[in-house]
Amino acid sequence: MQYLLLIYEDQKRFEQGYDEGEFAEYGAFGQKHAAAIKGGQALQPTTTARTVRVRDGKAVATDGPFAETKEQLGGYYLVEAADSNEAESMAAGIPAARFGSIEVRPIMVFS
């Protein structure tokens, strides 16, 4: 079964750049779970985001999201796991889990 591991962190932690040691940890995570990882990317900060809504048949794009939350979606992994326990175990190995949170969501399969 596939799971999306959504990485939430305070993006202010990266305003001064990225820690080389933490990058190495992500590399080690990727190597350890290479067979299970089906995709994944880091995301640009929320200041670069645009939100699209359709109201009364018209698309409107606005800057943001700028929700007043402590943690923002910063990236994701799409993984193959036997069950939610295995997916949660993988999520616990993501370096960001020490600073933020990892949401584990099963992928919906349609017949």
TrEMBL record:
Gene3D superfamilies: Dimeric alpha+beta barrel (3.30.70.1060). Residues 1-110 form the YCII-related domain. Pfam families: YCII. It comes from the Bacteria. Belongs to the YciI family. SUPFAM superfamilies: Dimeric alpha+beta barrel. It comes from Acidisarcina polymorpha. This is PhnB protein.
